Amino acid sequence: xxxxxxxxxxxxxxxxxxxxxxxxxxxxxxxxxxxxxxxxxxxxxxxxxxxxxxxxxxxxxxxxxxxxxxxxxxxxxxxxxxxxxxxxx
Length: 89
Known about the structure:
It is a single chain. The chain has a domain at 28-88. It has 2 helices and no strands. It has helices spanning 16-43, 45-88. Keywords: Membrane, Transmembrane, Transmembrane helix. The chain crosses the membrane at residues 20-42, 62-84.
C-alpha cells in the first residue's frame, strides 16, 4: 500500500454535514428572496400598488415566487461550492 494514497472518502455533499451546509444555503437564499421582495416593494411604488390591488393571492404568489427562485439559486450555488471545496481537499 502506497503511503501517498489516501482511502477514498465519500463526497461530503451526501454526508450529514453536507446536507446541513446545503440546507443553510437554501435558507440563506430564501431569506435573501424575502429581503429582495421587501426592497422591491419599498423602492417601486408600482409594485406596491399592484400588490395592494391584487389581494392576498397576488401577495402570496409574489412572495413564493421570489423565495423559491432565490432558494433554488442559492442551493445550486451551494452544491457548486461544496463540490469545489471537496476537490481542493
